[in-house]
Write a structure and sequence with these properties.
Strand content: under 5%
Shape: elongated
Distance between the termini: 83 Å
Number of strands: 0
Number of helices: 3
Number of domains: 1
Helix content: over 70%
Order of helices and strands: HHH
Structural class: mainly alpha
């Protein structure tokens, strides 16, 4: 009986590892300064922000799947309050990640506006 319990526990832990490696993406350390950046630097900055966007979306998908998997594995053993708490925590992580992503995108877009205004002055 103990062996069966140990095997079941081992299987549950192994299945739980599937999404346990949801690593939070690191925001770009530096965005280009639109007041002085070259076009190439702005394009590189855009590429960095797009990569961060994809990494953050992958992270959000991962944590969504992770909580769904944990709830499914727990089945009837999970009380409604426990399920609600798990979903609440996941929603907080999800929303914090999206807020962080939006902040990075907003900062980059502000630098794009500065860059466009600066380069438009030179053309005109």
């Amino acid at each position: 009986m103990k062996a069966l319990l140990a095997m079941a526990l081992g299987a549950a832990l192994a299945a739980g590892v599937a999404y346990a490696d949801c690593s939070y993406p690191v925001a770009p350390a530096k965005l280009p300064d639109g007041a002085s950046a070259t076009l190439e630097e702005m394009i590189a900055g855009q590429k960095t922000v797009k990569e961060y966007d994809k990494a953050m979306k992958d992270y959000v998908d991962c944590i969504d799947k992770e909580v769904d998997q944990k709830i499914a594995q727990a089945g009837d053993k999970l009380k409604p309050e426990q399920k609600a708490d798990m979903q609440k925590v996941e929603a907080q992580k999800h929303n914090a990640a999206i807020d962080q992503l939006q902040s990075v995108a907003d900062r980059f877009n502000e630098q794009v506006k500065v860059f466009k205004a600066r380069t438009a002055d030179k053309k005109g």
